[in-house]
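New to this. Explain these tokens.
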Amino acid sequence: MKKYFRIPLYTLFALFFVGLSSCSDDNNDGAAKAVLASASNLSFASQGDPCQIITVYSDATWTCDHPDWIKVEPETGTGTTDVRISVIDNLRDGTPDNPRKADVVFKGVTKASEAHVVVRQDGDLFRDVMPITIEQMNANDDESVAVIENLTAVAQYGNSFIATDGHDNVLIRTENPLADGTTFTVYSTKTFDDQNMSVLIADHFVAGGTPAALPEAIDVTGQLDAVSVADRAYVMMTGKVDGSNIIVAGKEYHGVVMAATPELGLSSLNGHMVEIFGFYAGSASPAVNIYGHVANDQGVFEVIYFQDDFEWLDPWSIAGAAGKSVETDDLNATAPALTSVKASADGTEMTAYQFIESKGYELLYDKNDNKRIYLQRNYLKFGKTGNHGGITLPPVEIPSDVEAELVFDWCPMRQGSGKIDPVHLYVKIENGSDVQQIDIPECGWESGHKLEWMRATVSLSGIKVDSSTRISISQTEWEVATANRWFLDNIKIRQVD
């Protein structure tokens, strides 16, 4: 499909006249001191494509540089000029050659006055490309071409799947993932994910090859705080399932299941001890990321009545480029309002705010301003100076004879001066007119303290919690005008032994 990018005319003219105003009236050589083009990129098929017309704007005479396979008419002009750009067929021995790209440069008197148009022409991306191994591909540059033979599909993750050659593994993205056990050759282009790990974007597959089994899993439980394995290595860890997290006692880091095969059924293992197998997907303090594959259930570790780590907000977090203020101790990390970020949920586009409430939550705010609740990746930020907020949980049912507790992670915000926002949280439990409020102490941090998560624990002993109970986490002193900003993640209601 032909793609090119045109610059809006009002932008062109604004830039153009700024360029004119910066030039002196002397133009002894007649060469332009301001040159602009109406397009920055043009794309052509490998053969038979007609010419494309762009407009070049200048204050005097421009000339043009381009390779022989690109034709430009005219090759010089003055003022506003329509220019026809075409290409010769990209063939070698009668069949398409490799794709090619070059700049067409419309030149004035200086380098600063040049306008560049990138011209791309299709071709056979894989012509003359020799097969390589996964290991060799991992060492290659971004956007390099990769043909890899004798792969076997072993695990599916939506529009991606993992394949192995028996020694190394690779993540392949495609609209049509191959079924587990399929042997094939992949024709692809390499890119990187946000953990700087290799990903192949498949162009096409050729069936057949030598079957390969997954290599033996590497147990990373003991090295969780400093994992040292190859890209996409097959790994195993033993720990407690806590939502999408795998908690290992005594370790600062924990496993995070970023994606799971349909068969994994991690939600049914919540609160269980498991041996979980998967593919290493990078580390980002305090998480070791894996693509979950299979799990061996080792039995119930804790009974959980409600749990949420907000990982389901990831599509909205990506769409809003949300940052991680707490983990990075970054006061300027991007935190878009929940009302401003849209993504698709089951084919319906909605804001993050709407999606959270569709999950049964109620978002609390003052001054009729729901824009003061923000998105991080993947957790929530509440409040702005003079605006405060909180959240009510979805309905929860706890047996009357069970001792339970509510736990959650929270963190106050630090101001630019170093002062810690004096956030004072409370948990409110409402059963009709019976309302109980339990205060969460302020953090007590000194000025300049690094942002970090704190665990709050609230006993629900003797408190009725059923489907009509409302449990809210919020902050006191809503009427004050000071900054009382805070972050929330990892909410859980569990049985106490």
